[in-house]
């Protein structure tokens, strides 16, 4: 087995479903790629997904025809040019990205990071827009952030995630708990459904979530929901990340007040861009 095929992480390989649609199976192929695995051979794709070589070849051929994969030297395949085109289209049309790109650049500073995130799938959030450096410094050391555009993150970890989760419906919150009870308990968010529910209710009443990164205690995230004025629906969260040993109540209140105002502006821009992008 080649080093590349060995590096396909077990949790990155979709569960084989013989009844899955062709689109779902083709997506399984795309999900094998990562920063550590930029290209794959046909036999590696076949082995990782448990497909016959002929089946893997059919999906790869279709993905290449669509421009989602492209052949490389040495019979390897990598992500294709259509993904670049789709990424550009997203930046031009995604209302949350456009709202962030309009509102957040004037707030940029080298000692903080703003991140807009939205719900992605069942139990993940996705960073849509980031404004600020890739690293923050504290006491002479640099610390990399673990969220950037396109990077998924668990719905129950971090301030940005919790600010969204707490504003979803009770049924939606309960589904997240039932699917991740062990992980939620390990994260200190409640050992039972009642404890977790009460924690989410407290965040919702407070209007923001606050967290410290487990491996970098002085990296603090404060996040507020992005709520549409028309119906109160949560469309994302605005996360503000800073480096502090401590954050007193007055400073915390001031930051939250400012963030809430910024999130309101983002929500208004989101609504305007959403309306403008509708097909007439």
Summarize the structure.
By secondary structure, the chain is α+β, with helices and mostly antiparallel strands. The chain is built from ten helices and eleven strands. The protein folds into two domains: 83 residues, Winged helix-like DNA-binding domain superfamily/Winged helix DNA-binding domain (Arc Repressor Mutant, subunit A); 183 residues, Beta-Lactamase.
Structure description:
With 280 residues, the protein is an alpha+beta fold. It folds into 2 domains: 83 residues, Orthogonal Bundle (Arc Repressor Mutant, subunit A), CATH 1.10.10.10; 183 residues, GAF domain (Beta-Lactamase). Helix content is 44%, strand content 23%. It contains 10 helices and 11 strands. Strand 4 and strand 5 form a beta hairpin. The longest helix is centred in the C-terminal third of the chain and has 28 residues. The relative contact order is 0.10. The N terminus is likely disordered.
The secondary-structure element order is HHEHHEEHHEEEEEHHHEEEH
Portion in strands: 15-25%
Average per-residue pLDDT, rounded, comes to 87
Strand order of the largest sheet: 8-5-4-11-10-9
Number of domains: 2
CATH architectural category of the largest domain: 2-Layer Sandwich
Helical residue percent?
40-55%
